[in-house]
Specification:
homodimer, alpha+beta, two-stranded antiparallel sheet, 8 helices, 9 strands, DNA-binding
DNA sequence: GTAGTTCGATTGTCCGGACATACGGATTGA
DNA sequence: TCAATCCGTATGTCCGGACAATCGAACTAC
């Protein structure tokens, strides 16, 4: 079987990226079957008119994604497992939307409040200052699924309630020119109190899935601190992990 | 401030790895302060007697770890945030041990059973075959913390009950020459049934944190399928996420 | 027949160079 | 004063080559 590969040197898209995309697509569509060898780098480079470092860069990016495995003296082969995608820093909104649900959002609170010492510490703002506080209810198919409480520093972006109901918080931040970099998450569970049970349409004492998240942008600023609770019968966290070598 | 860096060309350790380790240590110990520039690659290469590709490889590995950020036309700087480590494919045993707890394990069941259709499907074994089934109770400071139920294909490694009580499953697999590659996890919550409540010293209906995991090795084989339940007052999942660019 | 050895194949590491591209500050112009 | 432009600087991409380390299979010797 000879895989059709080609690169366009006139394109502004980097050559290694063109190649890695074609390889990824070939894996995705089964044209490269799991376990099959990829052919050695030198020969591949020659066939495409590329240098070996360029080919290696393309392959490496797919290795990092967990789609390929390299073995010295053997070759590079396609991982044969149901590897889908590594965990992304994703938003609940995007998760739901890509899963085919039609998420809707109801903004319960959207104000500016004086910070508590705890929030000031995690966001890294002055203890005497103020922060945004938003509370939202996320519904799928009209049913409440999650209750989201977030704190954001002032001046980062303007939080329009209408926009918050139309899309997710992460999209708003990206649209405001903030490039997300990393987040620290804690996932746990606890019994529902009276108020939060009411909000999610559950009974008091029912199990809730909880998530706390602190998000940083690429300059290291803390841009968001959120406390979320989910109905475990309607939502769970699902993701792929890769060992770091 | 001039950072002291040096490489040993006699060492079998790759040069780029020596450099990246030194840089990581410097960041860890605060000798490279957050936000500070790293000095341009060309000059750094010259100072160390290395080529630029080698220096780039070292820097790239730290960028992948989320410790550094590159900006074209500006330079490479240390991320200033409380980034610790990205999420690893780690075992509960290692987690607890590194957190200073003294985990102990009680093996409840360690047998070979005929597969159920569900387990056969996830492990990818024949529906008429058999698999290992182990049930363990993990305790920290003598208190029950998690109940672990795992299925493994036969012939992968021998499961000695004494070894299982002395260490974690992942360590046993690594010791048996299995190189873990990736895992698919699902984290959720539910109310405790009578039996599992009893095992964890909880009451019936108490919230439990649940985790399901399917683990693959580097050849794509499915090597483990586990269903775990945790007492949420004693355990939660905590990890760092990076955006993939 | 079995164990040890050799050898080809393939990736891993490293080098030195070249040009492209984007960011930020300084300069220039209105 | 402010906006547009220029330019230095640093990373991004790409090349061609060299040698080392490792795996697996064929081969050899016992």
């Amino acid at each position: 079987m000879q895989l059709e590969l080609s690169v366009d040197r006139g394109s502004p898209v980097p050559l290694y990226f063109q190649l890695s995309q074609q390889l990824e697509a070939a894996i995705e569509h089964g044209r490269l079957t799991p376990g099959s060898l990829l052919g050695n780098e030198i020969e591949l480079a020659g066939r495409l008119g590329l240098s070996r470092p360029t080919v290696r860069q393309a392959i490496q990016s797919l290795v990092d994604k967990g789609l390929l495995v390299r073995r010295r003296g053997v070759g590079t082969q396609v991982v044969h497992s149901q590897v889908k995608r590594p965990l992304e820093l994703s938003s609940l909104y995007d998760d739901l939307e890509s899963a085919g649900h039609r998420p809707t959002t109801k903004v319960l609170v959207n104000t500016v409040v004086p910070v508590s010492p705890e929030v000031a510490a995690t966001l890294g703002v002055d203890e005497a200052g103020e922060v945004h506080r938003i509370e939202r209810l996320r519904l799928a198919h009209g049913e409440p699924m999650a209750y989201l409480c977030n704190y954001l520093p002032l001046g980062l972006l303007d939080l329009d309630t209408r926009q918050l109901e139309a899309t997710g918080l992460y999209r708003l931040m990206r649209a405001a020119g903030i490039t997300l970099h990393s987040a620290r998450q804690t996932i746990g569970a606890r019994a529902a109190g009276a108020a939060e049970a009411e909000r999610l349409g559950e009974e008091r004492g029912a199990p809730l899935l909880t998530m706390q998240r602190v998000t940083f942008d690429d300059t290291g600023r803390t841009v968001e601190f959120g406390t979320h609770t989910y109905r475990p019968d309607r939502y769970s966290f699902e993701f792929q992990l890769l060992v770091r070598s």
